[in-house]
Design brief:
The structure is a single chain. The chain has five helices and eight strands. The protein starts with a strand and ends with a helix. It has 156 residues and is α/β, with parallel strands linked by helices.
Length: 156
């Protein structure tokens, strides 16, 4: 059985982003993994109960807030827990999540000032998955994903 990969639904072209958009990943490797049935998708924010479209949100420490100041931490945490549960149910061994997102960012997230500044950091879902031993990569790290897949599959 091939290694399962949790992915952000927006990378598969699902219109689930805060602006009702998507950001499909067209990399040949990503498309091959999709065709092989490896990808298990989720949008933690939607599963957490937030609508599409929804106000832009950013992390401010342990909280997630909208540009208007509303605290949306709980839906973000609910979505993170749902993503972890889905990963466990499908025996996912790694994840490819949307870079810069307050849920899914794995290297960088927006700094919480709503001024387009990014800082090193991770989203709520990425943080929870990593705490449970699931490596998380961004869609811009497919070289690393490819190496991790090879490593995992050489152990089978």
């Amino acid at each position: 059985m091939s290694t399962k990969i949790l992915v952000s639904a927006c990378l598969l072209g699902h219109k689930v982003r805060y602006d009702n958009g998507d950001v499909p990943c067209h990399d040949a490797r990503f498309l091959k993994w999709y065709e092989e049935g490896r990808l298990v998708h989720i949008c933690p924010e939607v599963v957490g109960g937030l609508p599409t479209p929804r106000p832009d949100a950013q992390r401010q420490g342990d909280r997630v807030v909208t540009g208007g100041g509303a605290d949306v931490t709980e839906p973000f945490m609910k979505g993170a827990r749902a993503a972890l549960k889905l990963a466990e149910e499908h025996a996912v061994q790694l994840a490819i999540l949307k870079q810069d997102s307050p849920s899914c960012g794995s290297l960088y997230i927006y700094d919480g000032s709503f001024t387009d500044n990014k800082v090193a950091g991770e989203g709520t879902t990425t943080e929870l998955l990593r705490k449970h031993g699931i490596p998380v990569f961004g869609e811009d790290q497919l070289d690393e994903v490819e190496k991790e897949l090879a490593r995992l599959e050489s152990q089978k």
